[in-house]
What does this fold into?
Amino acid sequence: MKGLTKIGAILLIGASVFVTACAPPPPPVTKDELKAITDEADAAVKIADQRESERNRLTEDLDSKKAELKKLKKFHREIKEKE
It folds into this structure.
C-alpha cells in the first residue's frame, strides 16, 4: 500500500510540474500599471516614515516625562526628610 502512495505522490508532483511548465506567461506590465504600483509604494513609504517620526517624538516625550517624574520624586523625598 505504501508503494502505491509513493507512486501516486510522484505522479501528482510530475503532473503539477508539467501544468506549471505549460502555463502561459503572465501578461507584460504596462507603464501606467508600473507607475500606479510605484506611486502606491511611495505612498506606503511616506506613511511609514510619518509613523516612525511620530513614534520617535512620543518616545522623546515619554523620556522627558520620566525624567521629570524622577526629579519630582527626589524633591518629594527631600521634603519628607526635612519634616
